[in-house]
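Narrative of activities, Objective 1.

The group set out to show that a structural description can be obtained from nothing but a protein's sequence at a throughput compatible with the screening campaign. Below is one input-output pair from the validation batch, recorded exactly as produced.
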Amino acid sequence: MGRGPSIEARKNAVDAQRGKIFTKVIREISVAARAGGGDPNGNPRLRAAVDKGLAVNMSKDVIERAIKKATGELEGVTYEEVRYEGYGAGGVAVIVDCLTDNKVRTVADVRHAFGKFGGNLGTDGSVSFMFRKLGVLNYDGGADEDAVTEAAIEAGADDVVVYPEDGAIDVLTAPEAFADVKAAMEAAGLAPGFAEVTLRADNDSPVDGETAEQVQKLLRWLEDMDDVQNVYSNADFGAAA
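Output recorded for this entry:
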């Protein structure tokens, strides 16, 4: 009978993953602070990034240093926002949002990932028209549907979606209303389990079998890259279940 990984090996793996998450959050804090100022109360994007950092147990000192570096109080690296669009196996649309200090390196790495898993990098706008930007507040199954719906309408949300298979609820908002709706829901005692401003495809693209495996490998590979902040696709893996 083979032995599993040691406690030290598992801890190292967890620490490495935690480090990658911290790297991505710090970059988001840096870009948000540089673009909109270092006060989270007057910068919704920075407020969301700080909340994300606190949610993964990032210390306030680390967050404050990242903000100070971005606003010039401390010396730091300047990151640039860049988006890549392309197609995975089976014609699945993929959007890759990056924060990088070296665009030449990043585009080469992203192009390599697409090619490695049967896809290809496209031109600007080649797939982004298939997606829309919106705020999402998610509640696990078991949440009071009536209470969430009533509070969401009162808060100015655009829509409430209930998933019958597990009872989960999504409250959808315009991106610019996300922070206010989230604050109102929390004030009503209905803090979401997860909340973010994201991209969602207007129509999903079902994939299964080997194609689904290739697409999943591509998405995981991209998500694991340090320069990559977010990966979006219109893949529907339901057919692969």
